[in-house]
Amino acid sequence: MKDSSIIQKLKDGNAAFLSGEKPVGNISPDLRKALSENGQSPYAVIITCSDSRVVPEYIFSASPGDLFIIRTAGCVVDDFERGTVEYGVRHLGSKLVCVMGHTKCGAVGAAMHSHGEEPEALTILVGEVKSAIGDEQDSYTAIKLDTQNSIKRLKESTYLKEQAASGDIEIIGAMYDIDTGAVEFFE
Ligand SMILES: [Zn+2]
User: Looking at 72-122, which runs of residues are DSSP E strands?
Assistant: First the structure.
């Protein structure tokens, strides 16, 4: 599947999500059995926030086997996340990597209004977001900057950087609106 058609598949899935009141992914026992026997070949890697309101399978009307998903607060990326994406691309054949931030992101909000009173690991996480957004006061812009930083951090992987440069994969950003349910792709 070409990159453009994968993005279109995600857009179509989001449109179905917006028009329906219930998930439209296939959760049948037959699909589960087929995936167990034949293995997975997810068409996209999604890196998004752990926020409980952001559920990629629902948002893209996806089924088991469709999406290879990494979730961290604020979509931050470090070695384990890069390694997971490398696995999805190299071993599972995913051609599209999408870093999807979302409106009203608590991690980005914490970085915008940081008071430095968090536990140690959370301080590191918020610091990563803070380094991406600087003193930005507009939350939409800050979230977009945060996703762009995660894309940059993904490309610290020589493998992913080369795959993207050669056009074998595409790495894009996106924004999910937790109110409307719509996804904006930064193509
Ligand atoms: Zn968030």
Answer: 96-102
Ligand 1 (ion): which residues have CB within 5 A?
49, 51, 105, 107
- How far is the centre of ligand 1, averaged over its atoms, from the C-alpha of 72 (Å)? 8
Burial environment of residue 1 by CB neighbours within 10 A (0 to 12, 13 to 18, 19 or more): middle
Render pLDDT for 34-80 as a digit per residue (tens, 0 to 9): 999 999 999 999 999 999 999 999 999 999 999 999 999 999 999 99
Strands 44-48 and 96-102, sheet pairing: parallel
Arithmetic mean of pLDDT over the chain: 95
Confidence tier at 140 by pLDDT (50, 70, 90): very high
Distance 51 CA to ligand 1 centre (A): 5
Q: Two tokens at 162? A: 């080369």
Look at residues 121, 102, 96 and name the one whose alpha carbon lies nearest to residue 5.
Answer: 96
Separation of CA 73 and ligand 1 centre (Å)? 5
Q: What spacing in Å lies between the alpha carbon of 31 and ligand 1's midpoint?
A: 31
Q: How many CB atoms lie within 10 A of CB 182?
A: 16
Domain ranges of the chain: 3-186
**pLDDT (tens digit, 9 = 90+) per residue, 158-175?**
999 999 999 999 999 999
What architecture is the 3-186 domain classified under in CATH?
A: 3-Layer(aba) Sandwich (3.40)
